[in-house]
Design goal:
Blueprint lengths: L14 E5 L4 H12 L3 E6 L2 H13 L4 E5 L5 H15 L4 E4 L14 H30 L2 E6 L16 H21 L4 E8 L8 H13 L13 H8 L10 E4 L7
Parallel strand pairs: 1-2, 1-4, 2-3, 4-5, 5-6, 6-7
Length: 260
């Protein structure tokens, strides 16, 4: 018998942790998961932005808590899953969205920029995922990890724009980490997938978008940049039971930019 599709998207009774969830792409994903029933823990550094995000979600009927965290700290990353359990009782879904960028030509790229981007966007992401699996997902025999990568991790950076070698490297690492963890943890009930956004306006991308918006749109077959709802459907699919047979996959949400 063919099952009903609607209940597959229901996240009622589940708890999702969204890093970098106080604004931008992370808040967009948090809203989608919360509207389908998940209780949400938002982690970011800025307390005021976190409180504002919790208030915004509450207006939409989403139960959310703020957990101020600097995920570039190994100890903070390792402690965060237990903080989520302390606040909301469990952890079922981890959305790894926190990241950083630093623009400079590769030949003069500063080591401090490299370390900042890699420590948060790759090392910190792994340490948090490792802690979530060890403390929650493996003991309960079930868990979902959604990594926010980028099409910048799927290809080289455009030569006309400021170099972002550490960001490209971090996102490329996230993409293959996604596949490796999915293969290792699949038999133990953990699914791991990634979405790779294309050109989305955000605070991180504001400088690049302000200088190159027209050509970015020209490089996107659908003819526009990503919008405030364009990650919601993909995130919901990959974190809910609707995606129960999907793991180790990278879904580009880029308006077709990587198709040309």
């Amino acid at each position: 018998m063919i099952p009903y599709a609607a209940p597959m998207f229901d996240l009622g009774g589940r708890v999702a942790l969204v890093t970098g969830g106080s604004r931008g792409l992370g808040l967009q994903i948090a809203a989608a998961l919360g509207e389908y029933g998940a209780r949400i823990a938002l982690a970011a550094r800025n307390v005021e932005e976190l409180d504002s995000a919790v208030s915004l979600l509450a207006e939409r009927g989403v139960d959310a808590v703020a957990l101020p965290t600097d995920l570039s700290s190994a100890k903070a990353a390792a402690d965060l899953p237990n903080r989520v359990v302390g606040a909301l009782g469990r952890l079922d879904i981890l959305v790894n969205n926190a990241g950083a960028a630093w623009g400079a030509p590769a030949e003069t790229y500063p080591v401090e920029g490299w370390n900042k981007v890699i420590d948060l966007g790759l090392t910190g992401l792994f340490l948090l995922t490792q802690a979530a699996a060890s403390a929650c997902f493996l003991p309960q025999g079930r868990g979902v990890v959604l990594n926010v990568a980028s099409i910048e991790g799927l290809r080289g950076h455009h030569h006309s724009r400021m170099g972002t070698i550490a960001y490209n490297t971090a996102k490329g690492g996230v993409i293959n980490m996604t596949r490796a963890l999915a293969a290792e943890w699949g038999p133990r009930g953990i699914r791991v997938n990634a979405i790779a956004p294309g050109f989305f306006p955000s605070r991180m991308s504001a400088g690049t978008v302000s200088r190159h918006e027209a050509e970015m749109i020209d490089e996107t077959p659908v003819g526009r940049l990503g919008g405030p709802g364009d990650l919601m459907g993909a995130a919901l699919l990959l974190t809910s039971d609707a995606g129960a047979h999907i793991t180790g996959q990278i879904l580009a949400v880029d308006g077709g930019a990587t198709a040309i």
